[in-house]
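Problem: given the chain below (229 residues), write out its structure.
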Amino acid sequence: MNAMRAVILLSGGLDSATVLAIAKNEGRECHALSVVYGQRHVVELEAAKRVAGAIGVAEHVVYPLDLRVFGASALTADFDVPKDAVGAPGIPITYVPARNTIFLALALGYAEAREAAEVWIGVNALDFSGYPDCRPEFIDAFQQVMWTGTRSGVEHHEPRLVAPLLMLNKAEIIRRGVELGVDYSLTHSCYDPTPEGNACGHCDSCLLRKKGFLDAGVADPTRYTRDER
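Solution.
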């Protein structure tokens, strides 16, 4: 019996690495999709390649897409990345306009081309920065897009959108990954890394990652600009 084919959105971060490990553990034939979108932390692409190699995928597609053309985000334009601001009111400037909508549209096209039955994404609605495209309402809505706007959806009610981390906190995600043997030293989360690739330790993504390891009781393998662990 052939394994169910699945497209995995793989950024190179902690969450997407865990999602890939879960999909592999559940017997999926994994096809990874990473997007180079003009992000200032493009070092995450090298992390994605490391993770894909370590966990194992049938194919790893790297899609070039320059969202700097639009800008309007600290990740794709010349704005300062906020520091020590987790929990601040409003949607932070690190939000990239419609990013997960765009990424899922690409993943959907890839999945339909490969006749994949599932698309997996590592969004999380608990320990996150308040992005609207990480919430259950968004996942439910995009599932309807998949089923109503594609031939595979109309004919086969596929692909299914899978978000296994949606209602887990970072500590729970890390514990699950450790159970599955994920090497988190291969991953990268920081929005504002040094030229050497060290994490700043103060952006939202770094703070959530640090807290996750602390709460999980797992040693944090991240290389920070200063030793703040």
